[in-house]
Amino acid sequence: MKLTPIEVDQQQFQRVFRGCDPDEVHRFLDLVSRELEELIRENAGLKEDLKRRDAQIVEFRAHEAQLREALVSAGRMSDEIRASARKEAEVVVAEAELRAGRIEADARERSAQLAAEVHELKRQRVRLLGEVRAILGSHARLLDAHEALDGEEA
Question: How far apart are the C-alpha atoms of 20 and 35, rounded to whole Å?
Fold first, then answer.
């Protein structure tokens, strides 16, 4: 049976001979009524506080679940970014190797061309030197012939 402060306050006792002092009983009942009222208020406040805290716990658990999802998602994104970066790096390296191969092949081809040009220039030099010697020899013979003619005329 639940007892309320009003019930305690309104409780009436039968008067008997040599019973308790009615004023003392009423003072005690007033005290019990006030204490009971205070306990009921405190209990209601605690129940309200408990409801608020239970609501906070539910809210915190929801936030925790969201945070866990965010962490898992961030982990997945991090893995995807790493994988993408690795693939991109592999592509860059492959392109660089391909370019290096082309540059190397071009350098070899250019080197071969330059070697052929050097060989051709050397061959032309030898031919020109021969032609210059032939011309000089021809001019020397002309000079000799001129001198001989001048010597005969003199």
Answer: 21
